[in-house]
């Protein structure tokens, strides 16, 4: 039996080393904390699968507001949250749900903010039902969808959206990517399953 062992932490965020030179380089003060991202999940049991999104956003210095809101059990509350999110200063909303997984679609139908869906496993279909329900949105009501149970990618995707305009965030993302490459390059294959 073989296993992969790495000494580096792939999602550790440190100050980026020198990026490729740019013709003009704007310096902005730290604005990460001005961004707020809502993280919604359909059930309290989903938190362990959604916590990686919360953690990576906090690592990037982005405020999070994590809540349990069910599209089926609390339709009015979900609609109200989505409809008022922009006025309350949210940049984007990440929604995680399993099985019928209507949460991201219900939120997206009530806001023009970016919505990222995280299909969650836990059903007899291992999350494939949630994946189809989240990704198959009608034209005009988009939900960016990540792989089943990969809320960390939802958090990174939102940070990248912010990084499109915020140079400091772009540096943090580049640093994370660099650390991921280093961790992968330092991975050693060992016999016996452990090093």
Percent helix, as a range, is 25-40%
Q: Which percent range describes the beta-strand content?
A: 15-25%
Quickly count the domains: 1
Give the name of the CATH architecture: 3-Layer(aba) Sandwich
Description:
The chain is built from six helices and seven strands. The chain is α/β, with parallel strands linked by helices. It has a single domain (31-187), classed as Rossmann fold. The strands form two sheets. A five-stranded parallel sheet has the order 3-2-4-5-6. Helix 4 (128-135) links the parallel strand 5 and strand 6 (144-145). Helix 1 (47-59) runs parallel beside helix 5 and helix 5 (151-163) packs across helix 6. It is globular. The N and C termini lie close together (12 Å).
